[in-house]
Amino acid sequence: MPVPNPSPLPPLEEVLAALHVVRLPLTVRFRGVTEREAVILAGPREHAEFSPFLEYGDAEAAAWLRCALEAGWHGFPDPLRTEIPVNATVPAVAPDAVESVLARYGPGGPHTVKVKVAERGQTLHDDVARLAEVRRLAPSAALRVDANGGWGHDEALTALEALAGFGLQYAEQPVPGVVPLAELRAELVRRGLPVPIAADEAVRKEADPLAVARLGAADVIVIKAQPLGGVRAALDIVAAAGLPAVVSSALDTSVGTRVGAALAAALPALPYACGLGTVALFGEDVTADRYVPRNGSLDLRRIAADPELLQRHRAPAERRAWWAERVRRCHERLVNAASPAVQADAPK
Ligand SMILES: O=C(O)CCC(=O)C1=CC=C[C@@H](O)[C@@H]1C(=O)O
Ligand SMILES: [Mg+2]
Hints:
menaquinone biosynthesis; EC 4.2.1.113; binds the ligand O=C(O)CCC(=O)C1=CC=C[C@@H](O)[C@@H]1C(=O)O; single chain; 2 domains; magnesium; TIM Barrel; alpha/beta
């Protein structure tokens, strides 16, 4: 993605000297995993996170490093607000597990809940049952669903017809890709089905994050700081797209979630609750001051990793070496992509 590097790019030696690798358990399976590995960088400005999913290649992961180096070495843009409304996220669990997930969002419950649907191996019946349980437990919450592109066009129409009765705020990435999303959105409008569309993967995994806006594929874009190459790059995408944006996590620790909050705080408009409540799904974290919502919102306090917790959750030596090597390769990509002026500060 053609976004500028943090300028100047810190030299690799400095980045590696700031590196900690942790492995943290989740309390519930999410995105097929029950533990999360992450690099925490003790940068001179902020603590920052580099945690591309393990299966991602270097080209994609380099954008995540760009985000970490921007946050750690250059800090955050000035905030325009100090409270970020946040949604609860319910993974594709059985109905009887919904209550314990929602309980993690504190007394009074969340005002907005995102429910994962279209999980491989499950059926529409499972999705309806999960949504019904969420609605029972949170009668006045706004509900949204996220299919992660798990439906085809016809399947999505059937599913959204069945789920529209829940009064969905929006359906996130019901089908994969940009053009299929645009076709589905047009068909929903044609049928008079009142389900707005949000684009997630169609923004963060496509070569051109603005194609969604150009093709009218969505009503809302979901933006994530790490995959989009940092807070400033994501702000630029929102400005160019001209669509309402929802900031969402990349299943980050408290440190990475704080970067997402910095992005949400700097957006000119924030009409929807953000998907930054996923620290609640972690069994352990890198700070005792866990970055979880209070009364449905995150405040903009400083979040720093605790050295004792970094040590306690340190990943095994072989994993630490794997991550250091991944950082090295991604850093090399950023150096090679940088302009000559930026490269002046990078190792030769
Ligand atoms: O947006 C939220 O409510 C929580 C974050 C979330 O859903 C995700 C985090 C990390 C990886 C993604 O598969 C997933 C998403 O699709 O948005
Ligand atoms: Mg999503």
